[in-house]
Amino acid sequence: MDNIIEHIDAWLIALAFAVAMLASWSIGWWRGRRMAPESGDDPGIKFIDAGVAILGLLLAFTFAMALGRHDQRRLTAVAESNAIGDFHTCASLLKEPFRSRLQDLIRDYARFQLDTPHERLSESDQRRATQRSLEMQAGMTDIVREAIAADTPIALALTNTLNNVSSTNAARLETYQEKLPWSIVLLLFLSSLIPSFLIGEKQGLSQKTHFSGSAAFIGLVALVIFVTLDLSQPRQGLIRVSQTPLETVIQSMTK
């Protein structure tokens, strides 16, 4: 179910939410119009307030969770860029021929990571890209092993920066596997339908229809859901992680 939600565009899901909420409001309004008007205070208004409050809490919770995951993807991208830059700097302290060989491979690795849109790749393409990354990491490991065998004085620093490159790459790729659970999306769906129905019923019962206000409420809820789901779909969402840190590192390598 999580995979199904991930492959549906966020705007389609948000549109489905809006249509369902509008239909729920219409059904409530139709039912309210056929109910006898009540005199005095209506205790049912408390249920509307409670339903809207619960919906607001759920929207805030899921938006914060989606935004946190987006920030995590951004931070891992920065961490990987820094790790690649540190490794390149450390490699510049090696003697030839290790220095040129390792720096050339690091530059190729950085360009490969920049040119590979991990967030938009299918699972099969992602496996091939990951395999290529591992092969390049293995090549860098071989050069580091040769440099250490030649008694380089920066063996410890070289090993640590190499480990950082592989670990930060694995951490960044892992962030693209996180998904918004389908159970939360279903809970949002139900929590948006019930207040819409109660609001429509209350308006129909009072013989006062506030369509513009109801439409604005439905539109705002759908917009928040769209942004939340878009943040939770790193492989196809409109909101993407900037590759500027990696581009800056590559530019510094070519100077």
List the helices and strands and how they pair.
Blueprint: H1 2-6, H2 10-33, H3 44-91, H4 98-115, H5 123-149, H6 155-175, H7 182-206, H8 211-231, H9 244-253
Main sheet summary? none
Strand content: under 5%
From the helix content, strand content and strand pairing, which structural class follows? mainly alpha
* Number of helical segments with 4 or more residues: 9
Q: What is the terminal-to-terminal distance?
A: 48 Å
The percentage helix is over 70%
> On the 0-100 scale, what is the average pLDDT?
85
Spatial extent as radius of gyration: 27 Å
What is the H-and-E element order?
Answer: HHHHHHHHH
Task: Characterize this entry briefly.
With 255 residues, this protein is mostly helical. 78% of the residues lie in helices and 0% in strands.
Structural overview:
The chain has 255 residues and is mainly alpha-helical. The mean pLDDT is 85. The two termini are 48 Å apart. It has one domain (9-28, 46-253). The radius of gyration is 27 Å and the shape is rod-shaped. The chain has helices at 2-6, 10-33, 44-91, 98-115, 123-149, 155-175, 182-206, 211-231, 244-253.
Essential attributes:
single chain; 255 residues; mainly alpha; 9 helices; 78% helix; rod-shaped
